[in-house]
Specification:
Elements: H1 6-19, H2 32-39, H3 43-55, E1 59-62, E2 66-69, E3 78-81, H4 85-94, E4 96-104, H5 110-113, E5 121-130, E6 133-143, H6 150-155, H7 159-167, E7 173-182, H8 185-191, E8 198-207, E9 213-222, E10 226-229
Parallel strand pairs: 3-10
Antiparallel strand pairs: 1-2, 4-5, 5-6, 6-9, 7-8, 8-9
């Protein structure tokens, strides 16, 4: 049997110490130099052990501050497959929506950013999550003439489902845009993330059978909690 590499052993020991509360959130872990002296390991081994904890989302490494415990358990990562139309809809069904606000679109809100007349839209703001973990913040525009009530939205798996149930309008085409962003202070605070940390921004535009836009959404996902997954099969040559 192959022995577990030393750096993985050190990482497991530190992970256990974080889990049992020896090191609490906000505490500093031993420095690389201290780990080397305590465990008689090389600087390279200590660095690799801390790298594993960083990749797991348990610690953050801050210049001139050291390695700080960020979480007692690894953060939940939501994996969104990208295979087709139904995969796009599945995210909204699996990532539970908590509505924070829902009403007429503000003049300086999401509608204005998209070049739409705010007077013809309602805007919803909310959080998406799995269990108790928040995986993203979302803004949604719903065209006023097909806007369901908040109660109707809460009764259905998705806002699109609520629109279809009440008005018979279904998405025939969904356009999606994915880009990188940096979380500002307000958004980072709502997500429980560090200001300036990386995130994914996704925008989706739902069009009916006539090509008319009736629903648009924008979601911000911290990079350590959300993954887009795609699989490709090699095509056979003739």
């Amino acid at each position: 049997m192959t022995a577990t590499p030393r750096y993985q052993q050190i990482a497991q020991m530190l992970r256990a110490a974080i889990a049992n509360g020896t090191y609490k959130v906000g505490d500093l872990l031993p420095t690389e130099q201290e780990l080397c002296a305590t465990h008689e390991i090389s600087r390279h081994t200590a660095r690799d052990a801390l790298r594993l904890l960083t990749e797991a989302g348990l610690v953050t490494r801050k210049r001139r501050a050291g390695t700080v415990v960020a979480a007692a358990t690894p953060p939940t990562v939501f994996v969104q497959p990208l295979g087709g139309f139904q995969d796009l809809l599945q995210y909204a069904r699996d990532a539970r929506l908590k509505i924070l606000a829902y009403g007429p679109a503000p003049a300086d809100g999401f509608a204005r950013e998209l070049g739409l007349d705010p007077g013809g839209w309602r805007e919803l703001r909310g959080q998406r999550g799995t269990g108790t973990a928040t995986v993203g913040l979302t803004r949604v525009l719903v065209r006023t003439d097909c806007a369901p009530t908040q109660a109707e939205i809460e009764e259905r798996p998705t806002i699109a489902d609520a629109i279809e149930a009440r008005y018979g309008i279904a998405a025939a085409r969904i356009d999606q845009q994915i880009s990188a962003m940096v979380l500002d202070g307000q958004v980072a605070s709502l997500l429980g993330s560090e200001p300036g940390s990386a995130a994914l921004l996704t925008r989706r535009f739902y069009h009916d059978g006539h090509g008319a836009l009736f629903l648009a959404s924008e979601s911000a996902h911290p990079a350590d909690r959300f993954v887009y997954s795609m699989s490709f099969n090699r095509e056979r040559s003739e």
